[in-house]
Automatic annotation (TrEMBL):
Record-level GO BP terms: protein secretion by the type II secretion system
Sequence segments annotated as region (Disordered): 144-178
Biased composition (Low complexity): 152-172
TM regions (residue ranges): none
Species name: Simplicispira suum
Protein name: General secretion pathway protein GspM
GO CC terms, sorted: type II protein secretion system complex
């Protein structure tokens, strides 16, 4: 009777090639494998983490600025809600809107229709519009509900000497706007 013998397995191909290599070749293959492993570790693990670490202060500052802006808007909204009881009458809002429009000069005309006021703009400097809107929001307690603005192709007009609100001269290349902004006035 024959005894069962252990199955004979051939060594893997890579093992036979490794055994056939000279010691110097083995060291070179190991060094190349370590270099590839180190490069993969750098590209997949360390580089993204270091990039995130480098970008973190700038992103943190941007998020802090955004949070500060949102908190300021929330505080302004709370003030506006608290001031709802002291909201000006429609006549007071109309007067405040007309006086604010006068600050834009001859390029702004106000037309009133019920609880809406339309301010037509012609050749008004772009830089003058944001502070004017803030003034309207603060004094007349009105916000725009609709706006149609296009860049003006007209040349700047000279201001009359008797203008109620003197304006700063605007640079020749500054953008100017034509169009209309519609405001909702408080109900009567």
């Amino acid at each position: 009777m024959s005894t069962p013998s252990a199955p004979h397995t051939a060594p893997p191909v890579w093992r036979t090639r490794w055994d056939a290599m000279a010691p110097r070749e083995r060291r070179l293959v190991l060094a190349a494998a370590l270099l590839v492993a180190a490069a993969l570790a750098w590209w997949l693990l360390l580089a993204p983490a270091l990039r995130t670490l480098r970008e973190a202060p700038a992103r943190h500052a941007a998020l802090d600025a955004q949070l500060e802006r949102m908190q300021a808007l929330a505080a302004e909204a709370r003030l506006l809600q608290a001031d709802a009881s002291t909201r000006p009458s429609q006549a007071e809002a109309q007067r405040a809107l007309q006086s604010a429009a006068a600050a834009l000069g001859s390029g702004a005309r106000v037309s009133l229709m019920g609880e809406r006021a339309t301010v037509g703009l012609q050749g008004v400097p772009a830089a003058a519009i944001p502070p004017w809107l803030a003034q309207v929001r603060g004094n007349a307690r009105s916000v725009p509900v609709e706006a149609h603005l296009t860049r003006s192709s007209a040349k700047p007009q000279a201001q009359p000497a008797a203008s109620a609100a003197p304006q700063k001269p605007t640079p020749a290349g500054e953008a100017r706007w034509d169009g209309a902004i519609v405001f909702a006035l408080p109900p009567r």
